[in-house]
Amino acid sequence: MTTVVLLDYGSGNLRSAERALERAGAQVELTSDFTAALEADGLVVPGVGAFAACMRGLNAVRGGTLVWDRLRKQRPVLGICVGMQVLFETGVEHGQQTEGMGVLAGSVTRLEADVVPHMGWNTVQVPEGSRLLAGIEDQRFYFVHSYAAREVPDTLTTTTEHGERFAAAVERGALSATQFHPEKSGDAGAALLRNWVTSL
Asked: Which fold does the domain 3-198 belong to in CATH?
């Protein structure tokens, strides 16, 4: 069976993501063990809350080294919500700039919108060639966030809009990431996770 590690670094309740990945066909281990996370077929980096707090948790379990090591070996990684944001070079929250993993170029900053946080369902615009969103007819996903990345060079970028256009998902080689929560996005999210698990 396909093995997936859901990285446990102190970022909130991970049960819904664990159940959704199991329904997608994965054998899921919730752990911060470096070797287990390195050797699993897939690694999921979740994230809720503040960019800086997530980076502190990730640094405590060598999360950046883990993600970079997996990607160098072309071993799949999926970032979700703040787990996507921390892949960028920097995050800026409340005037504080925090260094991210630097896997993706650019910075995550506050959304320019009348209502923040952005909370609810959005239809996304999927680029041709997306494996993550292949075959998904209802392309509405559930978002809960106040910060986002805009242009993401050298990736296949799915976009959506809340006040301004931003990156809803990115794909590049073994790396996939979503700003939305697939585990909270009903049938569409379940289909996305199946796409990812079956690609491992």
From this structure: Rossmann fold (3.40.50)
